[in-house]
Amino acid sequence: MTRTELAEKQLKLCECGCGQPAPIAKNTITARGYKKGEQTRFIRGHHVRFIKRSYPIGEKANNWRGGKLKIKCVQCEKDFYKKPDQIKRAKNNFCSHECHSNWRKSNMDGKNNPNWKGGSQKVYCYQCGKQFKKRLYAIKDTRKNFCSKKCQGIWTSFNQSGKGNPRWLGGIACRGYCQTWNDKEFKNYIFDRDEHKCQNPDCWGINDKLCRHHVDYDKKNCTPDNVILLCNSCNPRANTNREWHTAYYQAIILKKKQLSERINDKN
Fold first, then answer.
1. What are 214's strand-pairing partners?
2. Residues sharing a CB contact under 8 Å with residue 253, sequence separation 6 or more, in sequence order
3. d(Cα 147, Cα 168) in Å, to the nearest integer?
4. Residue 173, pLDDT above cutoff 70
5. Which of 183, 232, 185 is nearest to 210 (CA)?
6. How far apart are CA 39 and CA 251, in angstroms?
7. Which one-letter DSSP state was computed for residue 146?
């Protein structure tokens, strides 16, 4: 736009002092002071310049603390400028991250590090007798030291199996299933009776695989009234709150039994 065109339209300039004409508002926005068809005070983003210019800067500002001071880097002894409050907060002042990392490598290593816990010491493997290094805090946490997992596995297989195991219960074997459990006819009967579907009404439908479940959790009791068909998602859920699940599945089997008896009586 030329000056003659600006004079004809009498457009106001942006109040930030850039010398450009302020735009005309397309919509009315009361929060910003815009009116449709009228000029705005600033070009978009130029209000920041006005705010910075209106507030005092440098020594005239209320938060002035003397500006940056000239100090030397602890590592390379190079002169650089830093704010006074930053100098007070830091124990050591560095001109760059490289100088900081180099100083830490030479002054914060080993015993000079505040996290030092005694370093590593020489110990002997409890299985093979080999000498190796291990950290002090790790030696205190363990009663026996092993140079590798292989040595630890060999030692546990010989010393913590059978009666040497802290969980030894006198050699009592786990209770197995009854003989009819592996019978194919019994398995097919349970699947046909339950229509090859999970019998839990609240089944999430996550897993399609089906398995047989003992209602009273007794593996020796393989009567048809004690076995129900569940999916691999509902079966592990039944291991919690066993008393409630026992009564819940017994009621489901009883209902199915009563329905089958009614159908047989009608026929």
1. 227
2. 215, 225, 228
3. 27
4. no
5. 232
6. 79
7. -
Other residues' Cβ atoms within 10 Å of the Cβ of residue 191? 14
Give the mean model confidence (pLDDT) for residues 132-147: 86
Res. 159: pLDDT tops 80: yes
29 SS3 class: strand
**How many Cα atoms occupy the beta-carbon half-sphere of 91 within 13 Å?**
3
Q: Is the pLDDT of residue 8 over 50?
A: no
Q: What is the DSSP string of 84-117?
A: HHHHHH-SS--SSHHHHHHHHHHHSSGGGSTT--
Phi-psi region of 10 (alpha: psi -120 to 50; beta: other; left: phi over 0): left
CA distance 163 to 167: 9
Q: What percent of the chain has pLDDT over 90?
A: 37
DSSP string, 177-213: --GGGG-HHHHHHHHHHTTTS---TT-------EEEE
Is residue 231 within 8 Å of 207, Cβ to Cβ? yes
Mean pLDDT of the chain: 85
The residue type found at 256 is K
The pTM of this model reads: 0.38
User: Residue 214 corresponds to which tokens in the numbers above?
Assistant: 């003992």
Phi-psi region of 230 (alpha: psi -120 to 50; beta: other; left: phi over 0): beta
CB 237 within 8 A of CB 201: no
Confidence check: pLDDT of 152 > 70: yes
* Separation of alpha carbons 125 and 262, rounded Å: 74
Domain boundaries along the sequence of the chain: 1-55, 66-100, 120-160, 179-262
